[in-house]
């Protein structure tokens, strides 16, 4: 493999707070270590279309505190084909790019793996508010999304308390319950529903609410994960079965925006540095991960095959603290 002299950086999939901090780290660490850095706009679609420009130290000034991604992100059907991946690799070489740093989730890493199979060195940085990348204990954006959801739910509880209401609050996470579980603990929710655990409406939702009312509680929060959905239906059933006035609120994409937290800024900075460090050392086709509290890396194929179950301890804590 030839020595890496120019790296490309792109963001792919859903945006997440901390992506800009990761871009900044890749650009500044890359330039600081003697590399040329090319910014690729709109993910793999921008790579195929040649939406690429050289980045300087000043390109990432005043970016650390900004949410979203300055490089933007987009879906690309063409890249899901063999011809699309081949074209992307050819365009990258035309622009003199020797390796790619891909900031995103599992889908983004699968695209990076496809690029590696065309002889293109890649490094992945995990960034998704869902925290559902199996190979890493933490993904960029998760902490900020939790804080955003927690603030909204605290406000919802204020109004629920004023009306003796129950509120079903739907949080994001695709088919993973990490946001739902942690925000339920953080907000003292009476019930949390996650896609990883089957639930019985009567036993796991209605009964805990009635028990809580019998203990003297006057207002209630149900955290419902996006992967379950049907929040309006759940709210109607709760009201019918308990007589408690119930409302549904879907927090939606507000959880993906906002200035990244300290955790996300620092983690992104370390992960960006490690990604560049790996390329300089000649270690390719890996994903930067947090494992046992440390920043390290894993082979990309192994990373994509790794699963991360919802922690049993967290579920137990959520149930006990809701009493």
Polypeptide structure, described:
By secondary structure, the protein is an alpha/beta fold. Helices cover 43% and strands 18% of the residues. It is built from eleven helices and eleven strands. The strands form two sheets. Strands 3-2-1-4-5-10-11 form a seven-stranded mixed beta sheet, with helices on both faces. The mean pLDDT is 95. It is elongated and about 70 Å long.
Quick summary:
The chain has helices at residues 19-32, 43-49, 82-94, 106-116, 142-163, 178-187, 201-214, 231-242, 262-280, 300-305, 312-321; strands at 6-11, 36-40, 52-55, 99-104, 122-126, 166-171, 191-193, 220-225, 246-250, 286-291, 294-299. The chain has 323 residues and is α/β, with parallel strands linked by helices.
Our estimate of the beta-strand percent is: 15-25%
Helical stretch count? Answer: 11
Q: Largest beta sheet: what is the strand line-up?
A: 3-2-1-4-5-10-11
Global shape = elongated
**Counted beta strands:** 11
Largest sheet: 7 strands, mixed
First-to-last CA distance: 59 Å
| Unreliable stretches covering 5 or more consecutive residues | none
Radius of gyration: 22 Å
Order of helices and strands: EHEHEHEHEHEHEHEHEHEEHH
SS-based structural class? alpha/beta
